[in-house]
Amino acid sequence: MTFSITSRGQAAFSAAALAALLLSTTPSMAHVTLATGETASGSYYKGVLRVPHGCDGKATKSVSVQIPEGVIGVKPMPKPGWTVTMTKGAYAKAYESHGKPVTEGVKEIVWSGSELGDDFYDEFVFTSFVTDAFAAGQRVYFPTVQICTEGEARWTEVPAAGQSARDLKSPAPALRIADGRMNAQAQATGVEIYKLGDITVMAPWSRATPGGAKVAGGYLKVVNSGSAPERLVSATASAAGRMEIHEMSMVSGVMRMRPLNDGLTIKPGETIELKPGGFHMMFMDLKQPFKQGDAIKATLQFEKAGKLDVVFTVGAVAASGGGDDHSGHKH
Fold first, then answer.
1. Which of 27, 127, 208, 327 has the largest count of CB atoms under 10 Å?
2. What pLDDT band is residue 137 in, cutting at 50, 70 and 90?
């Protein structure tokens, strides 16, 4: 859809485009909302606050969000032109993170120092960990306030028991807690899990590399709990020059490997395991050797869900000729 902004700040649409816009608009588009409205307890969560407009036509100059109890490890994403401040405080109880108790953390984030005109849309991002303090089906609220050049918009209302958020004039952005059975199973085995919309990534891992090696394999399990296909398009990591998605298979008695240039499709309801000897990821042009115990940060890019930050845990060096060893394989 194309449009232009006139000197009066109005959007000039064609009649057809305007009709399409009106048909596609829902009441929630007028509210501040979370781009991903569902996650499982015991998982990492990337919160993306969508701010669709200002206050009665006035520009937004500050956005603040309250972090609910039970959401820990919060880190806001820096935003060019904006100043980010955090208020920290004690939690109501101690939570466990990587085997250690956590008793305090970020309680509020404020982005300020710039302006977002009423004609424009923007996103304000933070990462966090949603603890197991929440039950499946529960909704967790992130009260958010816009301060504008004139006036303010307070998205802070929480529905009472039996009430729908649709009945509220200014509902707080809400996050629904999905079925946590998968998380419980993962936690019982001590693996890390990451959730982004309908996608769950479990237990990313790699192997220590021998001296001089310039590549390393990357493995994980990915689950698509949605009703539409998803595609893992690409990945990046600061520890490598680039990352690629590969498939290994036996052809005429010879193990061959090929890059999946179009990415890896995960069908609705499907679980795919990236493992040695099959689908896997490759860290290419390593900047330094992987050592046992290292935590390799990477970002997975999904076609619909977007970007998901994960950490690959590095295990011991594999035996010579392991499934991810690229030497001797034909492409």
1. 208
2. confident
CA 188 to chain centre: 23
Report the alpha-carbon distance of residue 116 to residue 136 in Å, rounded: 36
Q: How confident is the model at residue 198 (pLDDT cuts 50, 70, 90)?
A: confident
In this predicted structure, which of 80-89, 142-151, 304-313 has the lowest mean pLDDT?
304-313
Residue that is last in its domain, among 150, 178, 206: 178
Report pTM: 0.52
Number of domains in the chain: 2
Cα separations in angstroms, 171 against 31, 143, 164, 174: 8, 8, 10, 8
Q: Which two tokens stand for residue 151?
A: 């006036």
Residue with tokens 């977002």: 116
Shared-domain flag, residues 210 and 301: yes
CB 153 within 8 Å of CB 63: no
Question: Strand order of the sheet with strand 152-155?
Answer: 83-97, 100-116, 60-66, 144-148, 152-155
Note whether residue 327 is domain-resident: no
Intra-chain end-to-end CA distance of the chain, in Å = 43
Residues 6 or more apart from 160 whose CB is under 8 A from it? none
219 shares its domain with 164? no
Q: What is the 3-state secondary structure of the chain? A: CCCEECCCCCEECCHHHHHHHHHHCCHHHHCCEECCCEEECCEEEEEEEEECCCECCECEEEEEEECCCCEEEEEECCCCCCEEEEEEEEEEEEEEECCEEEEEEEEEEEEEEEEECCCCCEEEEEEEEECCCCCCCCEEECCEEEEECCCEEEECECCCCCCCHHHCCCECCEEEEECCHHHHHHHHCCCCEEEECCEEEEEEEEECCCCCCCEEEEEEEEEECCCCCEEEEEEEECCEEEEEEEEEEEECCEEEEEECCCCEEECCCCEEEECCCCEEEEEEEECCCCCCCCEEEEEEEECCCEEEEEEEEEECCCCCCCCCCCCCCEC
